[in-house]
Amino acid sequence: MESIMLSKSTNKHRVLFITLVDISLIITTIILGYLFGGLLDLDNLAPHQSDISGSTIFFHNLTVSIAIIIFTSIIAYPVIIVNSFFLGLSLNIGIDIFGFLYVLNIMAYHVPIEILGWLLSLNIARKVLDLYKRRKKIQLKQVLKQTLYLAGVYLIAAYIERITFILFG
After folding, report:
1. Distance between CA 103 and CA 66 in Å, rounded?
2. Could you give the CA distance from residue 49 to residue 162 in angstroms, rounded to a whole number?
3. Which of 6, 17, 49, 154 is the most buried (most CB within 10 A)?
4. Where are the transmembrane segments (predicted)?
5. Per residue in 10-28, pLDDT tens?
6. In b/e form, how buried is each residue of 19-47, taking b as 16+ CB within 10 angstroms?
7. Which has the closest alpha carbon to 68: 54, 82, 56?
């Protein structure tokens, strides 16, 4: 009985450690993208209004996440790194064009939720990789349930993003 409890405790610590590593990777890559944006000559850029619907944002994010899940964490990490880099680059460009407060208002509400979606995608992708390798007997039902949670997270993030753009222009 003690070994089962120790195993569950060790597994929770492992998941927490991997999640912290994932968060560190995302933050580091966002910072690198932001710094890279500072190296670019962006004097010719002008403000551009985009009118993207909440459903378009939702389906884009969900499609990328489902691809990440199907192709497992082997593909997930490069995709998350590219997304994080471009998020940092977008932050830099947005601040240069619109100013810090505007970008803070636009990003502060939905970006943390989207990053939560990225973390959930990575977690599900690792489970799917274990399914493919048959190392662990994870039920497909559990993966599908977590994917539905992921869809809910992206739905919330997409509509917050859309509302934010409507409110702040």
Report:
1. 28
2. 12
3. 154
4. 15-37, 57-77, 109-126, 147-168
5. 777 888 898 899 999 999 9
6. eeebeeebeebbeebbeebeeeeeeeeee
7. 82
CA 124, CA 147: separation in Å to the nearest integer?
A: 7
> Coil, helix or strand for 143?
helix
| Rg of the chain (C-alpha set) | 18
72 token code pair? 């497992």
Residue showing tokens 């890279």: 36
Q: What is the pLDDT of residues 86-105, one digit of tens each?
A: 999 989 988 888 889 988 88
The residue whose two tokens read 């910072």 is 31
* pLDDT confidence band for 112 (50 / 70 / 90): very high
